[in-house]
Amino acid sequence: HRVLKPGGSLVMAVWDSLSVEHMSDEIMAAVMKGNPLPPRAVDYLSLARPHAVEKLIEGSNMSVIKIDHEEFPFQLSGLDHQTDDFAFNVATIPIHQNLLDLEKSGENPNAFRDAHDAFKKIVDEGILVHKDSKGHLFTGPNRFKLAIARRQFEDADGVLEK
Question: How many helices (H) and strands (E) does the chain have?
């Protein structure tokens, strides 16, 4: 609100559903071997609750102009710039710090090896990850919400009523 001029527009995108989170949950469950899962180090879905974005916008004296939802897959392999571990690295972004902590603490000194094994199993199952005709890995759909908002015009006494 403070960085926008009165009448200024805000465009923001937040995740509604992210296939990487489902994969990281499966991987972490395998790494933890039946023990309770630690909270994710990164929560990409913190604004995915219904109307969370709209409430945040309206609570900042802005008006929601438009909300839209879009979906797309992530390509995890087959691009020139990707390393061999790219797909695994993407799948473990939400739990990377957890894996480091498990190894550092000694609770599971093989956390990354176990995570690699679990990821390979996910790829082999073909449910959360699929291969195209060329053998390239994809995951998704990933869904995001696009919000467009506008800061209200104000006078010396506050917000101007329309």
Answer: 5, 6
CA pair distance 74, 19, nearest whole angstrom: 9
pLDDT in tens, the chain (162 residues): 578 888 899 999 999 999 999 999 999 999 999 999 998 877 888 899 899 999 999 998 899 999 999 998 999 988 888 788 999 999 999 999 999 999 999 999 999 999 999 999 999 998 899 999 998 999 988 999 999 999 987 765 665 665
Total residue length of the chain: 162
Return all residues near 44 (Cβ < 8 A) that are at least 6 apart: 15, 18, 20, 21, 94
Interatomic CA distance for residues 51 and 139, integer angstroms: 26
| Cα–Cα separations (whole angstroms), residue 65 to 4, 9, 37, 58, 88 | 15, 9, 39, 11, 38
DSSP 8-state symbol, 36: P
DSSP string, 79-120: -TT--TTHHHHHHTGGGHHHHHHHHHHTS-TTHHHHHHHHHH
Smallest Cα–Cα separation from 76: which of 135, 118, 117? 135
